[in-house]
Structures are given as structure tokens and as C-alpha cells.
Specification:
- The chain is globular.
- The longest helix has 13 residues.
- Helix 2 packs antiparallel against helix 3, helix 2 runs parallel beside helix 4 and helix 3 runs antiparallel to helix 4.
- It is built from 5 helices and 10 strands; from the N terminus they run E-E-E-E-E-E-E-E-H-H-E-E-H-H-H.
- It is α+β, with helices and mostly antiparallel strands and 178 residues long.
């Protein structure tokens, strides 16, 4: 594993996602037959949702978020608590960059969502769903986080980038509104 030592942990720069119980994931419904849905998690691991009698299957192609309840043979993740994500766009990031994208106590992802006024759902499998009018700004910020994940002070630089794009820095400071 290639990584950087950051305080008390090694932050991986590369690597694949290993499905773990409790991981939140984002995926696309590949098939739905009867009470079983197969979910493409954009990984060698596939997701499986077993529907209860009162649940209706999402349509093929629907984007969902869920939590891994169990992992069978390292290739099948049993999912629970699934919910459909309507509209929006889906982007893929390296799973090794997801912890940096989320940030400590969700600081990075919450900052991006707040400053772009979009809704973001990040899966530990590297799929990110984004919905809102400023999706392009959020995508640009996420791409920058992934490119510069190893650089200290990134949270502040992303904040400055998004505020500058929004016109908060410069114009509002000159007008004395900040």
C-alpha cells in the first residue's frame, strides 16, 4: 500500500475498496426480479438487496444508497436500509480518496455541499451522487480534493475556491458585507 503518514494514521494514496460491514455504499440497480435486487457497486463486489413483502423493487437503472449488513465470500455485499436517489449525477472517485473527501467529522463533504447548495451522498465504494443546480461546482471541488488529497490545508483551500467562485470573496469584502 502506498500512503502518507498523517498524525497517527496512514492515508492511502492508491488501492481498491474492500467491502466492510457498516460501509455506506452508492450503486445502480442492475436487475430486480421478484424479491431480489442486484446492485452494481462499480467494484468486483456486487450488492444484493432482499426485499421484504411490503417493499417494492426499485427499477433497473435506479441509483440507490444503502448500508452493508453482511459480506459473503468477499464478492457479495448484503445491503439493507436502501433508499432511491432521484435525479442528480453519479461520479466515481478512487475509494482510497473517500476518507479525505468526507473529512474528519464530515467537514470536507459538508463544506462542499453547503457552499454549492447541493445534496451529496458518498459511498465508501467510490461512487458519489450529487443533486442540485450547482452540481458542476461540486464536481470540480470533489475532483480537486481527490487530486490534492495528500496536501495539508486542503479544507481551507477548497473553501476559498468555492467562495471565490460564488463571488463571496472580493466583491463582498470590498462592499463591507462580510
Amino acid at each position: 500500500m502506498l500512503g502518507i503518514y498523517d498524525e497517527r494514521e496512514i492515508v492511502p494514496l492508491e488501492g481498491t475498496w474492500k467491502a466492510n460491514v457498516g460501509d455506506s455504499v452508492v450503486g445502480t440497480v442492475a436487475s430486480a426480479k421478484g424479491s431480489v435486487c442486484i446492485v452494481d457497486l462499480s467494484s468486483f463486489v456486487r450488492g444484493l438487496i432482499v426485499l421484504r413483502k411490503y417493499e417494492t423493487a426499485p427499477e433497473k437503472g435506479s441509483i440507490i444508497s444503502a448500508v452493508i449488513r453482511d459480506v459473503e465470500n468477499r464478492r457479495t455485499a448484503i445491503l439493507e436500509g436502501s433508499s432511491e436517489l432521484h435525479g442528480g449525477i453519479l461520479m466515481k472517485v478512487k475509494p482510497s480518496k473517500v476518507p479525505r473527501l468526507i473529512g474528519k467529522s464530515n467537514t470536507m463533504i459538508n463544506q462542499i455541499a453547503d457552499l454549492t447548495a447541493v445534496r451529496i451522498v458518498v459511498g465508501m465504494n467510490g461512487l458519489v451522487w450529487i443533486s442540485g443546480e450547482n452540481s458542476a461546482r461540486a464536481v470540480a471541488a470533489i475532483e480537486r480534493v481527490c487530486e490534492e488529497a495528500h496536501v495539508p490545508g486542503l479544507t481551507m483551500r477548497i473553501k476559498e475556491m468555492l467562495e471565490k467562485e460564488k463571488g463571496i470573496i472580493g466583491n463582498d469584502i470590498e462592499k463591507g458585507t462580510i
